[in-house]
Design a protein that fits this description.
Blueprint (H helix, E strand, L loop, with lengths): L1 H22 L8 E3 L6 E3 L20 E2 L9 E4 L8 E2 L12 H13 L5 E7 L6 H21 L7 E7 L10 H7 L1 E9 L1
Parallel strand pairs: 6-7
Antiparallel strand pairs: 1-2, 3-7, 4-8, 5-8, 6-8
Helix pairs in contact: 2-3
Length: 194
């Protein structure tokens, strides 16, 4: 009987080791639940819920929240103008930190004086941790938080559209905090008519 128990224990340990090797010892994803007001999902506790009560997000299949008259694919995209104004976020957060508000105010000042036809695309990005679905949602929440902050600073939110890339477009390729903090960001892209 003792011999069978030892063999069974050995087999269980081997199976566990093989399972861990096959999955790469990945962190267990955060359980998801619908966010209030729409079908996008986020973490059950402490996740990105920066939308006001009753405010709805209606992303299309690309993760964009399209606005009438703003189609970034049919406009010139200037990514350099506000490259230095990239906003960075804390882990698992879509709150615009006070240290990042000067970046938002600089973009808002430009948008308030921009000629008609000029629009802004805000791209939300995440680090590699979390599920793809969660990161897409968090990226959108970050972009929407920046849109709301720009509107609070006087920019016309009807000229601002958003898009989430989740974890798909990292700027730093490492797998540590120094890379992750660079990838948790919101970028501003100036859109002008072609």
């Amino acid at each position: 009987m003792k011999m069978k128990a030892t063999k069974l224990t050995y087999l269980l340990v081997c199976a566990l080791a093989l399972t861990m090797a096959a999955t790469g010892c990945k962190r267990k994803p955060t359980p998801l639940t619908p966010l209030p007001g729409h079908g996008i999902t986020g973490p059950k506790e402490g996740g990105p819920t920066e939308l006001s009560p009753g405010e709805k997000m209606h992303p299309d299949e690309t993760g964009s929240v399209p606005l009438p008259g703003i189609d970034p694919t049919n406009m010139n995209q200037n990514r350099d103008m506000f490259a230095a104004q990239t906003v960075h976020f804390d882990f698992d957060s879509s709150v615009v930190k006070s240290s990042e508000k000067p970046h938002v105010e600089a973009v808002a000042a430009y948008m308030k004086s921009a000629p008609p036809g000029v629009a802004l695309l805000i791209e939300g990005h995440c680090d590699e941790r979390g599920t793809e679905e969660y990161n897409r949602s968090l990226g959108e929440q970050r972009a929407l938080a920046l849109r709301k902050a720009l509107a609070s600073s006087g920019a016309d939110e009807n000229r601002i559209t958003t898009r989430s890339f989740g974890e798909d477009k990292p700027v730093a390729m490492g797998h540590d905090e120094s890379a992750w903090k660079q990838n948790r960001r919101g970028e501003f892209v100036v859109l002008t008519p072609k």
